[in-house]
Known about the structure:
With 70 residues, the chain is of the alpha+beta class. The chain has one domain (6-67): Multidrug-efflux Transporter Regulator, Chain: A, Domain 2 (Orthogonal Bundle), CATH 1.10.1660. Helices cover 56% and strands 16% of the residues. The chain is built from three helices and three strands, in the order βααββα. The chain has helices spanning 9-16, 20-29, 47-67, and strands at residues 6-8, 35-37, 42-46. The chain has a three-stranded antiparallel sheet. A hairpin with a 4-residue loop joins β2 and β3. The longest helix has 21 residues, at 47-67. It is elongated, with a radius of gyration of 14 Å. The model has no long low-confidence stretch (mean pLDDT 96).
Amino acid sequence: MPNPRFLRLSDVAEILNISSAQTYALVRSGELPGIKIGGRGQWRVDAEQLEAFIRKAHRDTREFVERHPF
């Protein structure tokens, strides 16, 4: 089965190795784009958005390290 397009917040938390609460906060703040679907309004994150978030985190970290050398 191919990788799913939409990930549950618990899946995102596992991928990023962070808590579910931290993942929820990222989505609610808009830092990590997510959508609410279904009658119960469950959050999902598009796998492409997660990859873009990770790429941005890499860039931001690299820039931080360059601005703050030892």
